[in-house]
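Q: How would the structure tokens look for this protein?
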Amino acid sequence: MINFLSSLSGIIALVGTYCLILSYSKKNEIAHTLSKGRVAEGTVIKMREDPDHTPTDMDYLGVAPVVEFRTINGLYQHFSTTYRKNSPYEVGQIVKIYYYHYKSRKEMALEDDETGTLPQTLLKWGIILCSISYPFIIYKLLQLVL
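A: Here is the predicted structure in token form.
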């Protein structure tokens, strides 16, 4: 098992480091969009129920809006993942939406969007994978030097 981990330590370290970088990026994505993005007027076209829960669950998170808006580059839809039991949004409501489009990067956010659990999950996996792989890499480097 040790030899197997040792041979894959470079790939595991790369994946772990990527998870850490992606965690940081996702954690700050909404704040970045709100500060650097342009503002558009959008319309709530529907309310999506949380796909992970049913209304009979005690932990039912509620609904999130789908907002359609137009920019000079075309028509876009933002699928919010901030689910609330008592959502302040309703179908047909006009809302302010922020968008940041640069090359292939397309970020969109409502003022009250939240990041959710993805950044924390990526951070945990990044720490686990890096703590498994980096000791093997350091050991291999020390063997080369000594």
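The radius of gyration is 21 Å.

The helical segments are 2-36, 118-145.

Upvote if useful.
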